[in-house]
Design goal:
Number of domains: 1
Helix content: 25-40%
Number of helices: 4
Strand content: 25-35%
Keywords: ATP-binding, Nucleotide-binding, Transport
Pfam family, one: oligo_HPY
Low-confidence stretches: none
Shape: globular
Organism: Virgibacillus salarius
Structural class: alpha+beta
Distance between the termini: 27 Å
Mean pLDDT: 91
Order of helices and strands: EEHHHEEH
Largest sheet: 4 strands, antiparallel
Protein name: Peptide ABC transporter ATP-binding protein
Strand order of the largest sheet: 1-2-4-3
GO molecular function, one term: ATP binding
Length: about 90
Amino acid sequence: SDRIGVMYFGNMVELADSEELYNNPIHPYTKSLLSAIPLPDPNYERGRQRTAYDPSVHDKSEEPEFREVKPGHWVRCTTKELEQYRKDLGL
């Protein structure tokens, strides 16, 4: 697929071109999903860390909105989270 949308409890939480999403996941739920994909190397798989999604990490002081973090890459987040995501990406 050219674009991928990630849903969590019926809400879109991230939308981006497939290559962008796989290489630069932003939303914690997307990171958790991608860490759960098994890889075909059993030696690597044994020691691989999974990322558990913890919804309590989100800022509850504001209703999240779907925002463009960088061109073509959208994430449901608060203003504070948006600033942090952009900082983490060096934008």
